[in-house]
Amino acid sequence: MIRLGLIGLGAAAQAFLTPLRRHGEFAVAAACDPRPEARDDFTAAFDRPAFDTIAGLLGAGLCDAIYIGTPTELHHEHAMAALEAGMHVLLEKPMCIRAEDGFALARAAEARGLTLVVGHSHSHDLPIRTMREIIRSGRLGAVRMVNSWCYTDWVYRPRRPEELRPELGGGVTYRQGAHQFDILRSLCGDRIVSVTGHAFDFDPDRSTIGAHSATLSFANGAVGTAVYSGYGHFGSADLTGNVGEWGYPATPLRRASGAAARPEDELKAKRARAKSAIGSDAPHQPHFGLTLVSCEKGDMRQSPDGLLIYTADGCEEVPLDNSRTPRELVLDEFAAAIGGEPPLHDGFWGASIVSVCDAVLESARTGRPVALPQT
């Protein structure tokens, strides 16, 4: 068993607790959070110690690996501390607020012979993974286009102030686009060479980057597009059989209330939502919006319970198992990487996704495409 410590017990960590309980290769060993009530809840649930400092957790000798779910602006500091303490690291997305910090973490893990995995869970959605396998098999010929459309109420859900500030890794391009760009790269199967982006702030009373449209060009000639709006007008569940992000029936969209909640009220609401936002045993496949893949000999998209494949012979539905959640599959990748299997979502991959987020916003500012260096 891999003894896992948790740094940060907020919304991101809450989503991992049930998958951790169900996973056979990890034992939750300890946690760290500055909030006494969070530590008390953890100790009551797991009967394991909870520390108020990271140094206390890392120095206790209780852990082999660390999960980091703290605010994005703290990821680099906390992950580097864990690596320097000799721990393998599973880091939430977005990896860092600066791509160079992400690459520094990747190099630090590599130099120490440690595992660093970035938890981009939605490319582990089984329909996405199955489409990737079909692409790699060559059954439909070369992949040419992948389009990701996601429309939600992200802007109007309870938020910490930094989640709305792009300079701190906030706004939909960093917080949600990171999922889209990860999906596009995993399906197109090559490095991203250039990015063209547009970004939008539609609501001055809730100012943030709340929508984007991005085009990613890949070295193999494939093209990916990512469209996201978090303003709660249209919901992409209308395109997915009313199935939401985590495989449950979609809930009504939140819309602008016309009056901003107090930050302390939003934080309280966010913590309450985190305890039930992502359940287990969903009735359908997860849908991070709609992903449509176009290959030379056919197209593919998610269906509520699997995958639809369109060819000259017609439409074939492929049912897929949904007994394991994407976060359980992230934990599979992390455990396998600790065991010596090279992960797809290593530190260099995670940092490259931050580079794409940066490039989308730079292109939006300048009106020009942004070339990405080879990584």
Structural class: alpha/beta
Distance between the termini: 33 Å
Instruction: Note the overall shape.
Output: globular
The arrangement of helices and strands along the chain is EHEHEHEHEHEHEHHEEEHEEEEHHE
Query: CATH superfamily name of the largest domain?
Result: Dihydrodipicolinate Reductase, domain 2
Give average pLDDT, whole number: 94
Tell me which CATH architecture of the largest domain applies here.
2-Layer Sandwich
The number of helical elements comes to 11
Helicity range = 25-40%
Count of separate structural domains:
2
Q: Catalogue the unreliable spans.
A: none
CATH class of the largest domain: Alpha Beta
Count of DSSP strands: 15
Strand residue percentage: 15-25%
CATH topology of the largest domain: Dihydrodipicolinate Reductase, domain 2
Strand order of the largest sheet: 14-13-12-11-7-10-9-8-15
* Major sheet characteristics: 9 strands, mixed
Q: What's the Cα radius of gyration?
A: 20 Å
GO molecular function, one term: nucleotide binding
Domain GFO/IDH/MocA-like oxidoreductase: 128-233
Domain Gfo/Idh/MocA-like oxidoreductase N-terminal: 2-120
Pfam family, one: GFO_IDH_MocA
